[in-house]
């Protein structure tokens, strides 16, 4: 199976887009895979929109998901020059200047547009070691395929349970630490609650802690679809050191709140580009005793 997946990465992207259309059709029309979940998420996030408007967003998000599968396969076999041409970064000097100062940076992105290509294209263009947190897959050959693909241009995928340990070992090195930060913490983890997309939402606070430990600026990577297979990415400064010693008493109240607001703006601008099938709202906000 691993050989078959690697073979797919050698197929031209236009052909892979055909595969993506098949995946879209099967997932959306036949299996109705998580369609109910995505529709509920959209209804709660955009109560002001009509049913027809939400239905159009839902369908477009599944079409984009089919394209995403095709593009991920292509990216894991693409050349460095191809990746450079497909993701154009704006304001990249924010990251390179930090590296020149010997300073690490924290990069926050989301399940938006093509987040897989961000790591590949950043590895090609920035020349800075990028450690990316990821959740290992249960199926061994899929996990290996994803790790090998993400590491092609210098990216360093690190399992989420070992991420903080690796950071502490390398805290004296200038590196970029990338997190897809719209995941929801498990119930017993520390979290930051905020009002996001019209509902109470929990966010991980690890990025806030990492930034304060390393004295690192935090950048939000805002991604936009320019055309099929082409994206723009803009680095937005969310926070910069020096951080106040007592500002971290309520972890997440500052940096993560800024991230949530920046991400919400992107989603509201292009809602079909967010991954509505993932379980962002797994549990309600606790009621104060």
List keywords for this structure.
globular; seven-stranded mixed β-sheet; 45% helix; alpha/beta; 289 residues; two-stranded antiparallel ribbon
Question: How would you describe this protein?
Answer:
The chain has eleven helices and nine strands. The chain has 289 residues and is of the alpha/beta class. The chain has one domain. Helix 2 runs antiparallel to helix 4, helix 3 crosses helix 4 and helix 5 packs across helix 7. The longest helix has 25 residues. It is globular. It starts with a helix and ends in a 20-residue tail after the last helix.
Average the pLDDT over all residues and give the rounded result. Answer: 93
- Strand % is 15-25%
- Please provide the count of β strands: 9
The span between the termini is 52 Å
Radius of gyration from the alpha-carbon trace, in angstroms: 19 Å
Quickly describe the structure:
The chain has helices spanning 2-8, 13-30, 35-45, 51-75, 80-86, 93-100, 115-126, 140-150, 163-169, 206-214, 255-269, and strands spanning 87-90, 105-109, 130-134, 155-159, 176-180, 192-196, 199-203, 218-227, 230-239.
Strands, helices and their partners?
Layout: H1 2-8, H2 13-30, H3 35-45, H4 51-75, H5 80-86, E1 87-90, H6 93-100, E2 105-109, H7 115-126, E3 130-134, H8 140-150, E4 155-159, H9 163-169, E5 176-180, E6 192-196, E7 199-203, H10 206-214, E8 218-227, E9 230-239, H11 255-269
Parallel strand pairs: 1-9, 2-5, 2-8, 3-4, 3-5
Antiparallel strand pairs: 6-7, 8-9
Helix pairs in contact: 2-4, 3-4, 5-7
